[in-house]
């Protein structure tokens, strides 16, 4: 967070004014800006490329080493297709849920599971390949690049080259070219963009001070050297990499491949399968009444004074399901015994819609006490007309 000083509208405007056919976004470790970028680019008449500069660990995302021994690398990934977009979502979700340790980390196993439809690169200087090169481990860098190539595919993994005028860019440049030749991997010319215009460098530097809690006068603080981390024009990039025109041409290849279509205004909730002859409401009623017949032992545990609703099997339930919204009660006993999971989730507004799972509960929905019924109604379960 607070690493980029660009606004999406400004980024899209800069790309469009330069006549560039596409514009991408690769936030660190998340995809928070993907949808705003998608709509802004479409509105400007250029193609959106949705991606992520993920955090990656060379070991396992489940490891929790000492901080001094903890290495996190960067990995650039771009969605080519809708499947690739979904896989990026899965990668960042699993990185947060399973791999969060200072940063949301993915690992080799996650990449092997969710690589389809994704273009990947070796990344910036913070990538695994470049970091191994800077450490003098040339063969390990080749092996790491080869492993990425095996996962994403020969045509979908690029060796990324950059030149911001920094010493480390120069140190890894020729080695990256050699790795590309060794593996037969295409080159991709890029420029780290942390602000939109060259003159924004000072404002970005102040932002980094906010992020790290440092003073600008502190010479040892984290900062970017130089002012080349902006959105360069196509002409500027062609000039920087004039001896490697194919590396620039390949950026257009990546843009041509990117073909993600997002349809707005449609429910993307999972469809719960119901038996033939049922719809969501009728099947929920059947499960509820089946639970009611088996639930006397749970009903006896209800606190004194709890409102219990009695229903005949042929009577309608006192609630109905809005289209696209179905009830989730994985184990309604938790509602009675602790009033923790289900009511807490509803109170927090985390789960507006719930999914009906296989009814393992002894407590039917119709037996919720009055206070819990209000929570259920708040989750868009509307009283029957």
- Whole-number mean pLDDT: 79
- Number of H/I helices: 15
> pLDDT under 50 segments (min length 5)?
302-313, 317-385
Order of helices and strands: HEHEEHEEHEHHEHEHHHHHEHHHE
Full CATH superfamily name of the largest domain: Metal-dependent hydrolases
Overall geometry comes to: globular
Number of domains as seen in the coordinates: 2
How much is the radius of gyration in Å? 27 Å
Helical residues, percent:
40-55%
The CATH class designation of the largest domain is Alpha Beta
CATH architecture of the largest domain: Alpha-Beta Barrel
What gap, in angstroms, lies between the N and C termini?
48 Å
Fraction of residues in β-strands? 5-15%
Number of strands: 10
Write up this protein.
Helix content is 40%, strand content 12%. It has 385 residues and is of the alpha/beta class. The protein folds into two domains: 8-257, TIM Barrel (Alpha-Beta Barrel); 280-382, no CATH class. The strands form two sheets. Strands 1, 2, 3, 4, 5, 6, 7 and 8 form an eight-stranded mixed beta sheet that branches. Mean pLDDT is 79; it is low at 302-313 and 317-385.
What would the keywords be for this entry?
single chain; 385 residues; alpha/beta; TIM Barrel; 2 domains; 8-stranded mixed β-sheet; two-stranded antiparallel sheet; 15 helices; 10 strands; 40% helix; globular; disordered C terminus
Write the layout of secondary structure elements.
Layout: H1 8-17, E1 22-28, H2 34-44, E2 47-56, E3 73-79, H3 82-97, E4 100-101, E5 103-106, H4 108-113, E6 118-121, H5 128-134, H6 138-152, E7 157-161, H7 167-183, E8 187-189, H8 201-212, H9 234-240, H10 245-257, H11 280-294, H12 296-299, E9 320-321, H13 333-337, H14 341-347, H15 370-378, E10 381-382
Helix pairs in contact: 1-2, 5-6, 5-7, 6-7
């Amino acid at each position: 967070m607070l690493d980029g000083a660009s606004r999406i509208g400004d980024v899209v405007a800069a790309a469009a004014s330069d006549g560039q056919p596409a514009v991408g976004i690769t936030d660190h470790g998340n995809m928070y800006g993907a949808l705003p970028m998608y709509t802004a680019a479409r509105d400007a008449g250029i193609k959106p490329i949705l991606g992520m500069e993920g955090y990656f660990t060379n070991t396992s995302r489940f490891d929790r080493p000492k901080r001094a021994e903890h290495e996190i690398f960067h990995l650039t990934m771009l969605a080519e297709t809708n499947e690739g977009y979904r896989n990026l979502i899965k990668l960042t979700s699993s990185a947060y849920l399973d791999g969060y340790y200072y940063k949301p980390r993915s690992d080799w196993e996650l990449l092997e599971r969710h690589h389809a439809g994704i273009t990947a690169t070796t990344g910036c200087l913070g990538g695994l390949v470049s970091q191994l090169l800077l450490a003098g481990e040339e063969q390990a860098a080749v092996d790491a690049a080869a492993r990425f190539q095996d996962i994403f595919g020969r045509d979908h993994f690029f060796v990324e080259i950059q030149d911001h005028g920094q010493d480390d860019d120069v140190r890894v440049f020729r080695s990256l070219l050699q790795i590309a030749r060794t593996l037969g991997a295409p080159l991709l010319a890029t420029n780290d963009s942390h602000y939109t215009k060259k003159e924004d460098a000072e404002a970005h530097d102040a932002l980094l001070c906010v992020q790290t809690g440092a003073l600008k006068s502190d010479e040892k603080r984290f900062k970017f050297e130089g002012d080349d981390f902006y959105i360069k024009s196509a002409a500027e990039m062609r000039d920087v990499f004039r001896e490697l025109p194919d590396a620039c041409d390949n950026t257009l290849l990546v843009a041509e491949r990117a073909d993600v279509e997002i349809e707005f205004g449609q429910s993307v909730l999972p469809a719960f399968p119901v038996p033939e002859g049922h719809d969501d409401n009728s099947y929920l009623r059947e499960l509820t009444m089946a639970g009611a017949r088996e639930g006397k032992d749970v009903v006896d545990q209800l606190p004194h004074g709890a409102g219990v609703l009695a229903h005949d099997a042929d009577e309608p339930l006192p609630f109905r399901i809005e289209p696209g919204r179905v009830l989730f009660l994985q184990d309604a006993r938790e509602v009675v015994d602790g009033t923790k999971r289900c009511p807490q989730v509803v109170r927090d507004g985390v789960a507006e819609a719930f999914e009906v799972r296989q009814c393992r509960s002894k407590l039917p929905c119709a037996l919720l006490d009055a206070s819990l019924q209000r929570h259920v109604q708040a989750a868009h379960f509307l009283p029957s007309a």
